[in-house]
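Please, structure for the following, as tokens.
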Amino acid sequence: MTPLAALGRTVLGLLASIGRLTLFFGETLGHMIRPPFYLREFGHALFSIGWLSLPVVGLTAIFTGGALALQIYAGGARFNAEAVVPQIVAIGIVRELGPVLVGLMIAARVTSSIAAEIATMKVTEQIDALITLSTNPMKYLTVPRVLAAFLVVPLLVAVGDVIGILGGYIVGTGTLGFNPSTYIRSTVDFLEWSDMRSSLIKGAAFGTIAATMGCYFGLTSGRGAQGVGRATKSSVATAAVLILAANFLLTSLLFAA
């Protein structure tokens, strides 16, 4: 095969994958507005994606906020601008680091879990059993998880933003010598509603991407243990790349000059 033919096959394969993902997401949206609705599965997904993700989100956010404060202070000291630490930590966490890191943590924890669970169900013929019982697998497995991620990940992002700013506050007041009341006032005065709104919008988008990738690769996985492993690996890698790409697009749209 010539290099040009190999390139063409790769491009066509990529376009076909994009088309399949788009059709899968469109079908998921269609099932969301048609009964029946599996509230028990939805509640389980809310708990699994939201509550069980809090520890990893909190730890990621607090250490990121603290490290960011140290880096900004060290960089600002080069031109006597140490006082901007509270403002830069706040806007950096809320606009970018908070949503992106939470999205990537959700991809690592939730996307992999969903893909492995659904792929295992497919291998053990539980998906076939659902079809035999006249239950649509997408409505029963995909819709509750995607809808739950769409609703709960923005809340996780909000929690991550607060904890990240708290991490910067702890380092700023405990290590760098900032006055606590001045630090809080500088943070509150600098943030705007548009910053917080963008954070929540990104959270909803990233949560939707993470859950959709887990469901898609789980339902389309191959047979056997290798199929489960391949689905898990592909779902996390694809979700992470799409989250970073979506972050760039949303940042361009929300903060275009």
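Residues 38-254 form one domain. Residues 85-123 form the longest helix (39 residues).
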